[in-house]
Amino acid sequence: MCLAALLLSALVKADDKSAPPAQTVSGGEGTVSPVSWEANADVSGIARSPFENSRNIGKVETLDSSFNTIGSYQASAGTIIRFGLEFQRSTFGLPDGAPLPDRLQAFHLALGTDLQLGEAWLVRIEAQPGFYGEDAGILGRNISCPLIAGASFVVSADLQLAAGLSYNPNRKYPVLPGLGFRWKFAADWVLDAVLPAPRLEYTMSKSLMVYAGADLRSDTYRVGDEFGRLHGDPQLDDAVVDYTEIRVGAGASWKINSVMTMQIESGCMLVDQFDFHRDDVRYRSAEAPPYGGISLKAAF
Description:
Strand content: over 45%
CATH class: Mainly Beta
CATH architecture: Beta Barrel
Number of helices: 1
Number of strands: 19
Structural class: mainly beta
Shape: globular
Helix content: under 10%
């Protein structure tokens, strides 16, 4: 996952991502596999809104999509090895001549480990080497390797604290730290104050949960080597851009069965921004357009 808030993409959520995955039965009778899998698919759209810098460049609309699959191997009682891949893409509907990319995309690996230290500490370290760029081709200049590290401390079954940092050599602020917590303060209520998606959750039934909160998304990409000249600003050739979205909204999560969960959400965009920070050029939405999205998660 920008600003001081997005650094918490590095954080480990004690109730979910950090916890050792349940082992799954496979193969012959009595055989237990040390590997578990999860997969996520997400698509969302942002309505048209005017973008501006020193001038209005017209209205832009966005379609975001992503898919990832992650395997977790139980190497020992307190060590899990994580491996997988992720693809994400933002496609933009632009007015003619707008000085913005029409797409930004990433394809990267996820390689890391989860460590349980004693009864209370959970630690995650992960590297995400891959290709982050405008171009559809896999080009050497698009290669980057963001790193994340996070730790959570289990105070009790109802309260967990988290801290972490992320590193991206191409980002405006390469190192970003942060703090958060998750607190179940009533039988059906949880305050999940861990970025990049802090929210207040209410469990209506075993299969249905509703929530309201924010979602902070940011990644860093490199545009094409002729991007600037094609858009009337040669300094932006081969430029690095931070693309950031900050959303606020509400949604519902429905556990379809023991494997599948579906989530729907809608709200508005507080921030939608392209920051060519090395060239001091920034474009952002002048309004707070609505968005809507749906995601599916499978864990097995």
